Amino acid sequence: MPSLNRRRFLQYAGSVAGTSLLGALPARADGFPVKPLALVVPYPAGGASDTSARIFGESIAKTVKQQVVVENYGGGTGLIGANKVLSAPADGYTFFHGSINEVFLAPMLNPAARYKPQDFMLAAPISDATIVLMVRSGLSAETFDRFLEQARQGKDKPLTYATVGIDSIYHLMGDALAARLGTTFLHVPYKGGAPALQGLAGGEVDFAILPYQSSFDAMQQQGRLRILTSFSKALPPALKHIPLISQSRPVPDFEYTISGGYFVKAGTPENRVAVLRKAIGEALAKPDIRARLEAEGRTVAQPIDTQAHANQVFDRYMTRVTQLVRSVGRKTNGG
Predict the structure, then answer these.
(1) Which DSSP state fits 288?
(2) What angle do the packed helices 270-284 and 307-327 form, to 10 degrees?
(3) What predicted TM-score, i.e. pTM, was given to this entire model?
(4) To bridge 163 with a disulfide, which of 12, 92, 170, 284 should be the other Cys (CB 3.0-4.6 Å)?
(5) Are residues 252 and 297 in the same domain?
(6) Bridge partners (DSSP) listed for residue 38
(7) Which UniProt keywords are present, listed alphabetically (predicted)?
(8) Contact at 8 Å (CB) between 63 and 282?
């Protein structure tokens, strides 16, 4: 009998030890992921967000040992893509290549948005994108300040400009720039960066405010557009040929970048978010990926380790966007 009791005790002790050990295992303990992941990009293929997502998707897939399928949903200044993520289960299998445009500005300004920023959770920040102003080839301005002079002189016929959509940061920047100059611009929203770029190159609009892509340089060399300025305080080495806004005499302080990261639906288990964060961090740590992102105009973030850190970054984004909206005199939904 004592030996039987001893066996039972050892079985119980082993069970307890096993349970404790399971609790200490890495975040992959529940087997996540066991099927392909959907990486939602809220714009059509070919734009800056799509390019960045595909760079990350390749690396994340290798780390988690599952396919990462990039899904593009253009339109609504990112609303369609954001809703796609929020309509999926909060299980980590659908994550969002998002920015302050879709996660923060859209629900704050667009009455059609049926969600709030807090419906998303930031898994990890990835980069700040360089924003540039480009003009069509037929516009005579060779410099940004000369462009500003033309804008002031053309009050009877406002210049038209392209962005990725209504109430995007690029739209707000256009409004704010016009206000600084005491003039007006006519906003022409497109369904994403790629269509907006095509509109500019085709002469449909006078200028565009968009996140930089390396393809812009080739199009400039072909004479299809001209890049007049970046709105950054500093630039990655690959972009040193682009003038900084600080070189402008009228608006040297008109500095803007757009922050982006990977988001999941709020309520996603934190152990699964941790798996994604680790995979994103490994991508961010790779020199070749950082170089590719910098060549696309990105100031790349450093990897982060905890959800608490990610939450702090989320709160900083929220504060910055709120200040931007107030600076252009816009009211947010519900106030």
Answers:
(1) H
(2) 80
(3) 0.85
(4) 170
(5) no
(6) 69, 94
(7) Signal
(8) yes
Which of these three, 213, 232, 257, is where a domain ends? Answer: 257
Give 328 or 55, the one with higher predicted confidence: 55
pLDDT of 94-126, one tens digit each? 999 999 999 999 999 988 899 999 999 999 999
Q: Residue 261 above 80 pLDDT?
A: yes
Residue 11 has pLDDT above 90, yes or no: no
* Number of domains making up the chain: 2
What is the distance in angstroms between the CA of the first residue and the CA of the last residue of the chain?
Answer: 75
CB 264 within 8 A of CB 120: yes
CB 191 within 8 A of CB 81: no
- How many angstroms separate the CA atoms of 91 and 39, rounded? 13
Which tokens in the block code for residue 285? 């740590």
Residue 85 has pLDDT above 80, yes or no: yes
Contact 149, 251 (CB under 8 A): no
Q: 40 pairs with which residues across the strands?
A: 71, 96
Of the candidates 76, 145, 66, 82, the residue with the CA atom closest to the CA atom of residue 119: 82
Q: Considering 235, 257, 279, which residue would you say is the last residue of a domain? A: 257
Compute CA distances 285 → 55, 59, 213, 235, 239, whole Å. 13, 11, 21, 20, 21
**Residue with the two structure tokens 């303990």:** 29
Question: Which region among 25-39, 162-176, 272-286 has the lowest average model confidence (pLDDT)?
Answer: 25-39
Which residue type occupies 222?
A: Q
Quote the CA–CA distance of 280 and 4 in Å, as a whole number.
51
Count CB neighbours of 70 within 10 A: 17
Q: What is the CATH number of the domain that holds 122?
A: 3.40.190.150
Give the Cα-Cα-Cα angle 308, 310, 315 (nearest 5 degrees). Answer: 95
Q: pLDDT for 151-191, tens place per residue?
A: 998 777 999 999 999 999 999 999 999 999 999 999 999 99
Both structure tokens of 71: 């899904």
Say how many CA atoms lie within 13 Å of 132 toward its Cβ. Answer: 29
The string of pLDDT tens digits covering residues 194-247 is 999 999 999 999 999 999 999 999 999 999 999 999 999 999 888 999 999 999
Best CA proximity match to 227, nearest among 215, 249, 236 = 215
